[in-house]
Amino acid sequence: MKNILQGKELGFGAAPLGNMFRSITDEEALATVDAAWEQGIRHFDTAPIYGAGLAEIRLGEILSKRPRDEYVLATKVGRVILDELEDPASRDLGERSGLFKYGRKNKIEIDYSEDGTLRSIEQSLKRLQTDRLDIVYVHDIAQDIYGDEWVSKFESARTGAFRALDRLRDEGVIKAWGLGVNLVEPIEIALDLDDAKPDAFLLAGRYSLLDHDRALQRLMPKAAKENVDIIVGAPYSSGVLVGGAHFEYQKASPEIVAKVDRIKTIADRHNISVKAAALQFVLANPAVASVIPGASRPARIAEDVAAMNEVIPPAFWQEIREQNLVAQNAPLPK
User: Fold this and answer.
1) How many domains, the chain?
2) Which residues are catalytic?
3) Which of 76, 118, 212, 216 is most buried, with most CB under 10 Å away?
4) ∠ at Cα 214 (213, 218), nearest 5°?
5) Could you give a GO molecular-function term held by this entry (predicted)?
């Protein structure tokens, strides 16, 4: 798997292209993807749920004009987008409410079965205007909003989507598959499966400067030992690390804001950006193959690239460690 993402440590997370949190124009979305390409980014990650297919449509509009062999394209299964629209008078807008309320109004059907997986892939190929996918993740089988229900969703995916993706990989239809989740536990379980062997995992929000303790306990060491890639999503913790108001897709608590302020104070003292610290911290872990921050403005892409190349003095990391702002066993950039 590592050869797929080699040289693509900085990727592009396309969730904002689905009008996450705010509505953006097609022109702004397409300019952002263009900027990512011009900055040398060749790893693009999306999903059907991002704006009920809107992110895939926008991403495909640009990438279809680029040489297909030059980039890695990842999407997800577990959601089938229906032609039927939501009733705008309904209070229950399903999974379109909240994060993607500004996206397309199509109904979204949760489906982790083999048939649903194949339908989802077929739809994604059309929206992305491509004939193949490199990585396919089983999306959101574990979210905090499900509580204990995630175990039953995992089992449904194990007997449906997992087996379908395992077969598609073996047949050469896709290059790799895994889980795209925001909890550590389902990845740990998947690593121990005998009847399915994922190649990579997209872990969103659980390995960042603000939240990494649980992942360090077992997941990261086991993934590195078994040569299974971890791709980190949401490295800025939904934006709060870089001036935003959200943490874990919700308004950040006073405690989180205070922790960010402490990190920023130390960063300012060493004349570095928190964005650089956030990205370089994630990539310092040997299990991490790539990090995929999201962006909805072209200027943000240049900032991400600059942050990757920013020189951070060892004294910054030493102070962060001494102030107990990172775990004592967390790998730090050298």
Assistant:
1) 1
2) 45, 50, 76
3) 76
4) 110
5) oxidoreductase activity
